Here is the input.
Amino acid sequence: SGSRGVLYPHGTAPGRCAGSPPRSGVAAPLRAGRGSGRARCSRPCAAAPRTDPSAVPGGSVLTRRCTGAAAARRTGRAGRGRTTSGNTNEDVDIPSRRVLITGATGLLGRAVFKEFNENNWNTVGCGYRRAQPRFEHVNLLDCIAVHDIIHDFQPHVIVHCAAERRPDVVEGQPDAASQLNVAASANLAKEAAGVGAFLIYISTDYVFDGTSPPYKETDVPNPLNLYGKTKLEGEKAVLENNEETAVLRIPVLYGEVERLEESAVTVMFDKVQFSNKSANMDHWQQRFPTNVKDVAAVCRQLAEKRMLDPSIKGTFHWSGNEQMTKYEMACAIADAFNLPSSHLRPITDSPVVGALRPKNAQLDCSKLEMLGIGQRTPFRAGIRESLWPFLVDKRWRQTVFH
Ligand SMILES: NC(=O)c1ccc[n+]([C@@H]2O[C@H](COP(=O)([O-])OP(=O)(O)OC[C@H]3O[C@@H](n4cnc5c(N)ncnc54)[C@H](OP(=O)(O)O)[C@@H]3O)[C@@H](O)[C@H]2O)c1
Here is the structure.
């Protein structure tokens, strides 16, 4: 497993040991997990962190042996570690809390990775087609690869963002979508349980039929489309395989995108910008556009709360609180950039093409709010920040000068 391009904290490039000792001495409330059952290294580890009771919640004292890729991924266990990088020894500060993020190359996963990484977590991200060079390449359908990375890194927390989340793609490729959204999630939950990791499974408001909003966590789901059904089956599968799981349901997302098509919100930008052409916009489905940075902050707050309180588990809802149709979002985008909106046409009929969508699946977020968890960026500010690199004027400048 040492061949993967893992994100090593500076100066912790691995040697060549294949094994690692069982996870031990991890402080309450997170359980100590099993060992990987693979070959163990027997010599004292150059990368073994020195004890630092304050670095792990609960203040456990840790001693470890082993070098290599697994150790390098885990060097955060006790905070400050002396590591070997080539011929030079150097001290590095590595956070003691470890988080693994699946789907770290995706819209939400990138924000989640950044949020944990910038807040004193030892963070490893996994991707698939876009993994290299920043992230670990792990196909979640490959059980051995999943087992290896979890047992090598021994995360305290796993945020599972990877999924097939495009309803029309799920309708077209139901088996592939089910493998990723359900079977791979179940396997991940099992592996997370094996090392005592707290799993956050990202789910969707599309588990509800949208007929009686707002929805509490206790309301009975009734997904209208196959995407919602696979995500709901994924929820059940992770909870069955790992009691120490949180399911976090969220609505339509926007944020910093690599391409406008990455988000159902940002994809409207060119129709807004090219005002010489009229554009039909859905004015039937009620949405609550939510900034990925806010969801990422909620995931981190949830993880940190859980490290202090083992009762944090089960289902939670998070959402922005500005209700808008796509037409209203497009008008708000125009407003945020001082662009005209008179070419945008509201369509009030329910859509006749594509997968069925719930009319209004508003999520009640009071359970997380009562825990003191939450963050909401106003839509106009968040969308401006996300879309300004895609302004036609800006793109023109980039073409000319770069
Ligand atoms: N986007 C929304 O509006 C929205 C709304 C509600 C809920 N959600 C939920 O939020 C989560 C994140 O969505 P997103 O919009 O960030 O999705 P996304 O941008 O489409 O990203 C999907 C991620 O899954 C990874 N992936 C795909 N197949 C994989 C495989 N076989 N093995 C490992 N990784 C694989 C992709 O990796 P590569 O790209 O590297 O292949 C990518 O990182 C999902 O659970 C989704 O259901 C999203």
Notes: Residues 103, 105-109, 127-131, 138-141, 161-163, 165, 180, 202, 204, 231, 250-253, 262, 264 surround NAP (CB under 6 Å). The chain has twelve helices and 13 strands.
